[in-house]
Each structure stands twice: as C-alpha cells, then as structure tokens.
Design a protein that fits this description.
The complex is a heterodimer of chains A (227) and B (221). With 227 residues, chain A is of the alpha/beta class. Chain A contains 6 helices and 12 strands. In chain A, helix 5 crosses helix 6. Chain A starts with a strand and ends in a 9-residue tail after the last strand. Chain B has one domain: Glutaconate Coenzyme A-transferase, CATH 3.40.1080.10. In chain B, a hairpin with a 2-residue loop joins strand 11 and strand 12. The longest helix of chain B is centred in the N-terminal third of the chain and has 10 residues. Classes of the chains: A alpha/beta (227), B alpha/beta (221). Chains A and B meet through helix 4, helix 5 and helix 6 of A and helix 2 and helix 3 of B.
C-alpha cells in the first residue's frame, strides 16, 4: 500500500543534505509552508541554496534560516518585503549570495525542470541586466535569452488537501509557486491543511497529481496571516 | 508650479489619472495593473464594463478590495493586498499565470516607471546599477510579454527632472515595449517618430510640456 503520509516532522525532513537546493513555495504568507520551514531549521541542513519568491520577512521562517547562517544563496524575484531586515543585513555584509530572477522566469525555470527541459528561450529580460552573460538568439525576428531550468533537491510545499497517494489541491491564491516546485524537486515534501481518504478528492479537481509528491505531513494550522 | 507658462495648467491628480487610463480600456480586455499607482485604475472601470483583471500570483478575474469584515485570508494580489474574486474568476499556478503574461495573452499591462525613453524603453525596477538588493518581481515579464504596455506616472520627478527621456539612464526593464504614457500633464503615444502628444492636461501647452520633457515631442501627423 502506498502511503506518503508521514507521522512526524523528523520523518518529513529526513535526507535533506547540506548543500542542497531547496525550493520553498508561497507568495506572501499565502501558501507558504511555515511548519516545514521550521522543520528544516530544526533538521539542521546547511550551505543551502533557497529558491523562493521573496527573501523572508522579520526574523521568523526563511528569515530565521538565513539568520542562522544556513543559506549560502537565495534565488528570488523580490527580496524586498515589509520587513526584510535579516536578508538586507546579510546581503550588505556579503554573507549571502543573491540571484535575482524575473518572477515568470523563476516559475518557468522550475516548470521546465519538472518537465525535463534543461533550458528555454524567453523574451523576458532581453536587453537588461538579467541577460548579461547569457546566450541570446534571434528567432523569427525577435531576440530571446536562454534561461536554464532550476531543479531542486527538495521542495517545501503547502497544500489545502492531500491524500495518501500525494494528490493535492490548493486554496485560492495559495496555489502560486507550489505546483511547479512540486514538479521540479527530487524530494517534494508537503504540509497539508486537510488529509482526505483516497478517492475523496474528485480526480477532476486534483491540482498536483501524486507522482510529483513524496511526503505529506498533516499541518492544520488554519488561515495565513501577516506577510 | 513656478513658471508662468503653467499658471493656467491643472495637472491631473492621481485619481484623475487613474480615471483617464480606465476610460481607454474596452470591455473584454484581459488586463494586469502594476503595483502602486496603476492599481487604482480598476476602481474607475464600471462593473458593467467587463474587463478581466489578472494578478501575477494566479488570480484571473480579480475584484476590488473587500470590506474589512469580509477579508478572505487566502486571496491576495501581487501587491499582497487582500482582494476579491469576481463571479467567473479563477485561480492558477504561477507558471500558468506567467504563461498568460509571457505568452502574449494579456491585452494590456499598465506599469509605473522611473523613466520611459522615446524608443519605448522602460526603466522601472532599480534606480542605480548598484542598488542594494534590487527587486524585479514580474515587471520584466509583463513589459516584454503583454500585447500592449502603457505607463502611468508623474511627468517629472518631485524635483522637476523629466521622466520621459531620450534614452533611459536607469537599469532597463524592457526594450522598446511602451506603447503609451499617461502622465499628470499629458497622454503620449510612443511611435517610430518618438513621443507624440495626443492629449494635454487642462491649461497645459506644448511649450510647457516640452520644457518638462527630456526628449523631443511631436504632434500627431
């Protein structure tokens, strides 16, 4: 019997190694796997590369992981937030690498990784700092820049519902980066608000099929708050 | 404004600018409004004119901000403000949301900007090459991907420096992307000739506008 549901945070985090690239879902506080981020802090992996839309808020969650010196590099589109104190302090001190990526390119790089596409051409960023040092090509009269896919060793994802096969649904704008990160990582770890019986989620309503999911932890925390 | 040329001029307020942009958006368009000033444009599109607003974080058919007691904590826009979903609206993931942008499915994107050049270049994400932790978000995707890009901004900076220029000096967001600019002083098309003035704010003159613009202005042919 396939059962991807794990009983503890320790089990959920098992095997994330030092030096890993970890993809972390969420946009603002919505769809952000806060419990799993705390689990990663507890788990101890270090020298991490983190891909996430933002670079942490305040001193909790991702900001705390960075504050503990565990993140070597952050790949994101928008390192500013209502309170980016930790990131900005580390960045000014030269203690964290930053790779800024246009938001759509960030999503597509992970989408491509999940689909076995090593690189793709896009018009986004042509003629800007984002294209510096990258291959460009003219295709049918328009110039495009080559962007490489962004696979992760692990992804931390927040879902609304999950079953033991790892089929997922998301809630409203909580979907955001979560499905593409689930596709892009070798080890996809999900925290889910609800656990459903197999078959209870209408097959037509599954957003992320279980093939993209490795582990599910039940975390019924309620509504997101703060940013 | 100090100089006499502008004694009679009545620059548009931000609300009037938003209303002016909204007037030009026809029913049926799919539209993304950038964070900041452009967000207010939606407030001036009447509900019976069906314009479908898109937000980068996977919201299509976005509605106005909810009353405080009806906030849905699961529903935010790209500016991380609480919003609503109109009947008929839908959600998608980030790659699909940006496929809508990058695949040329949006009829219009309205962005704010630091500078727009007469060749349509836009600079709206960083004000120096050495910005501490510059944040680009979805601006480059929107500028390069939407069917049309309009910019909505003050005509000059607070100290009077022109924002419509011959060539941008700030880091670029996209090349040759801007089709139209709405400012507090005028509406301008970006054409092969450069900036063409199609409308002046009440009391504004071409000479006064030219004095506040860093590129040569043209009249419609």
């Amino acid at each position: 019997m396939i059962d991807k549901i794990v009983g503890s945070m320790a089990e959920a985090m098992e095997g994330i190694k030092d030096g890993s690239t970890v993809l972390i879902g969420g946009f603002g506080a919505v769809g952000q796997p806060n419990a799993l981020i705390d689990g990663l802090i507890e788990q101890g992996a270090t020298d991490l590369t983190v891909a996430c839309n933002n670079a942490g808020v305040g001193r909790v969650g991702l900001a705390r992981l960075m504050d503990l010196g565990r993140v070597r590099k952050i790949i994101c589109s928008f390192p500013r937030s209502s309170d980016p104190v930790v990131f900005e302090t580390l960045y000014r001190a030269g203690k964290i690498e930053l790779e800024i990526v246009p938001q759509g390119t960030l999503a597509e790089r992970m989408h491509a990784a999940g689909a076995g596409i090593p690189a793709f051409f896009t018009a986004t960023g042509v003629g800007t700092k984002m294209a510096m040092g990258k291959e460009t090509r003219e295709i049918d009269g328009r110039t495009y820049v080559l962007e490489k896919s962004l696979p992760g060793e692990a992804a931390l994802v927040e879902a609304w519902e999950a079953d033991r096969w790892g089929n997922l649904t998301f809630r409203k704008s909580g979907r955001n980066f979560n499905p593409v990160m689930a596709m892009a990582a070798r080890l996809t770890i999900v925290q889910s608000q609800h656990i459903r019986e197999l078959g209870e989620i209408d097959p037509d309503h599954v957003h992320t099929p279980g093939i993209f999911v490795n582990r599910v932890l039940h975390v019924p925390y309620g509504d997101p708050s703060g940013f | 404004m100090p100089d006499s040329l502008l004694a009679e001029a009545k620059p548009l307020s931000r609300t009037e600018m938003a209303a002016r942009v909204a007037r030009d958006i026809p029913e049926g368009w799919y539209v993304n409004l950038g964070i900041g000033m452009p967000t207010a444009v939606a407030d001036h599109v009447p509900m019976d004119r069906e314009v479908i607003f898109h937000s980068e974080n996977g919201v299509l058919g976005m509605g106005p901000a909810p009353p405080k007691d009806q906030i849905d904590p699961w529903l935010i826009n790209a500016g991380k403000q609480h919003v609503t979903l109109r009947t008929g609206g839908s959600f998608c993931h980030h790659a699909d949301s940006f496929a809508m942008i990058r695949g040329g499915h949006l009829d219009l994107c309205v962005l704010g900007a630091f500078q727009v050049a007469e060749n349509g270049d836009i600079a709206n994400w960083a004000t120096s090459e050495n910005d501490t932790a510059p944040a680009v978000g979805g601006a480059m995707d929107l500028a390069a991907g939407a069917k049309r890009l309009w910019v909505m901004m003050e005509h000059t900076t607070r100290d009077g420096t022109p924002k419509l220029v011959h060539r941008c000096s700030y880091p670029l967001t996209a090349l040759g992307a801007v089709k139209r600019v709405y400012t507090n002083l005028a509406v301008l098309e970006v054409t092969e000739r450069g900036f063409v003035v199609i409308e002046l704010a009440p009391g504004m003159t071409m000479d006064a506008l030219q004095a506040r613009t860093g590129a040569t202005l043209h009249l419609p042919a």
